[in-house]
Amino acid sequence: MLIDTHAHVNFVAYKDDGDEVTKRALAENIWMINVGSERDTSRRAVEYAKKYSEGVLAAVGLHPIHLKEQKVGAQIDEYESVEFKTSAEKFDYKYYKSLAQDERVVAIGEIGLDYYHNEENKLLQRETLLEQMALAQELDKAVIFHCREAHNDLLAILKNWDLMGNQKLRGVIHSFSGRWSQAQQYLTMGFYLGFNGIITFARDYDKIIKQMPLERLLLETDCPYLTPEPFRGKRNEPSYVKYVAEKIALLRDITYHEVAEVTTANAKKLFKI
Ligand SMILES: [Zn+2]
User: Fold this and answer.
1) I want to staple 236 with a disulfide (CB 3.0 to 4.6 A). Which of 144, 216, 223, 259 is the partner?
2) What's the pLDDT tens digit per position in 212-249?
3) Ligand 1 centroid vs 35 CA: distance in angstroms?
């Protein structure tokens, strides 16, 4: 059994075949957490979870990229580019709280800081993140953090959170993109690091994956984005999380079975599945 801890079958890329994609994964004993990024995708993540008796869970939250109206475009490599439009959403605590109260919602996310896409609204990003961390604290949910080019600020926010006497949060830094020194700080604070298909086509994180404790590593796809080898150029989906597991086994020189067993136990522990 594997758990894709960060999927977006709730996104428009699957509007025609989301249930087929979901069933394909479940048939291989691959579970998933569909992660929301704004009002509608958060609601849809919960709707998907309600349709299945087991194996499909949800996270709800407001991603920093959706705090501003803009056209987002990014070229990931020669095989993949991403384009979408966002509208400026203001975080509505009550709305997200009512969604998150469902027991199938295992985390608040994805939330965080994104200076890669927006640098001019750092204060708004920080305030919105803090409100959602407070929601996670109130409901005792895990947190799924998104962080692009902002690790030192996120680390400072997390350290301050503890210093202010708040309840310690549990969570994952999804699609980890920082340096080893930053990884170590997150690990010391008790957080998990999530890795996806990027590690099958880029070498940047090999060292971190070899050095970090396997007991803190989570598998994810971030589908429909970041499709792993050997499917670069195609739409990603939760069942491809097995290729991420295979790559981790190769890098750490352990069996696929051990990667599956440990990372699944990690996800169950963090998300209280
Ligand atoms: Zn995501």
Assistant:
1) 223
2) 999 999 999 999 999 999 999 999 999 999 999 999 99
3) 7
